[in-house]
Amino acid sequence: QQQEHQQQQQEPQWFQVAAAEVAPPRNRFHSLHRPRVVQPITRLAFDPAFELLWCGSADGRVTSLALSDDNEQGVPQLVRRARFRVASKPVLSLIPGLQTMTTVTQDAVSLHSAGGVLYSKFYTPERVHDLTCAVVANPMRGELALAGKKPLDKMF
């Protein structure tokens, strides 16, 4: 019985979450009767340091969600922590950092605070447009490796 109890403690616990609201907030200029359009999620990333799930959407918005069990039913839910727009194009890559979020779109790489404040934005030169993804190449030096449909002559 003691071995069985130890084995249960060592097994990871998984929670099933039914849904999380990532639709854009209602705008005061929109009619209350017109439904909001939910854009497809194009990227997901998990930040293990702060236990946040980051979602990038097709309309260029980024949303962070955290697990919360502060409700009457005692069932874990994902609650929104931040939501901000990074571009009008789809989010192609999400790279969480220490209290920051680096995003890649077709024509730019942006660095935001975890709350959405823009720190810097680097636009790609015209000959380098059509980025498709990015990955951290050297975390100690903060270097990114970018991939795209056109060849990269130079890193910018």
Structural features:
mainly beta; globular; 6% helix; 156 residues
Folded structure, characterized:
By secondary structure, this protein is mainly β. Helix content is about 5%, strand content about 40%. The strands form 3 sheets. It has a 4-stranded antiparallel sheet with strand order 1-2-3-4, with no helix packed on it. A 4-stranded antiparallel sheet has the order 5-6-7-8, with no helix packed on it. A hairpin with a 4-residue loop joins strand 7 (about 110-115) and strand 8 (about 120-125). The radius of gyration is 19 Å and the shape is globular. The chain starts with a helix and ends in an 8-residue tail after the last strand. The model has no long low-confidence stretch (mean pLDDT about 75).
